[in-house]
Amino acid sequence: MKPFITLLSVLALAFAVNAADAPAKKKAAPKKAPVAEETKASAKVEAIAKTLTAAQRTKLLNLLNEGDEKALLAIPGIGETRAAAIKKARPFADVTGVMKVEGVGDTTFAEMVAHAKAGFPDKKEEAKPEGETEKKKAPAKKKAAPKKKESKDAK
User: Fold this and answer.
1) Using CA atoms, how far apart are residues 5 and 45, in angstroms rounded to an integer?
2) Which of 81, 101, 106, 139 is most exposed by smallest CB count within 10 Å?
3) What is the rounded CA–CA span in Å between residue 112 and residue 83?
């Protein structure tokens, strides 16, 4: 019986040592802001970004890094969800960094650049075609009562 107890003790000790050496399971890393894979901006995006002047590029970068909700929503293609994602992904080192935000693709980036090139107009101004102003509606005219035709007998 003594050898049997000794054998069980050795096995228990070996099992305990083996369990202590095994690496602990790692928990999944907490998810960050909804950011797409870390990839370098495509050649198309770089070409679009190069069409900006230095001043336009700086102003767009400042808007992306420091703009409030209202300023971000003024950018075409940016709604509340994308604006929130942009805020979470800040700061951006370059305007092309916004491409890492989920939901911002080549088309949205091109709209941002066009908005910057246009001088960051308000959405209300964009809705009106150039040269047109709002026309006030004239008050509705009252219809005149139809004239009665005179009968031939009256003459």
Assistant:
1) 73
2) 139
3) 13
Q: How far is CA 133 from its chain centroid?
A: 31
Preceding peptide of 23 cis, ω within 30°: no
Is 89 within 8 Å of 101 (Cβ atoms)? yes
Fill in the amino acid letter for 70. Answer: K
Q: How far apart are CA 71 and CA 49, in angstroms?
A: 20
Q: For 51-120, CATH number?
A: 1.10.150.280
Cβ–Cβ under 8 Å, residues 52 and 117: yes
Determine if the pTM surpasses 0.70: no
**Domain boundaries of the chain, sorted by first residue:** 51-120
Strands (DSSP E) contained in 5-113 are none
Q: What is the mean pLDDT of residues 138-147?
A: 62
At residue 10, does pLDDT exceed 90? Answer: no
Angle made by CA atoms 49, 115, 129, in degrees to the nearest 5: 145
116-137 residue pLDDT tens: 999 888 765 544 455 554 455 5
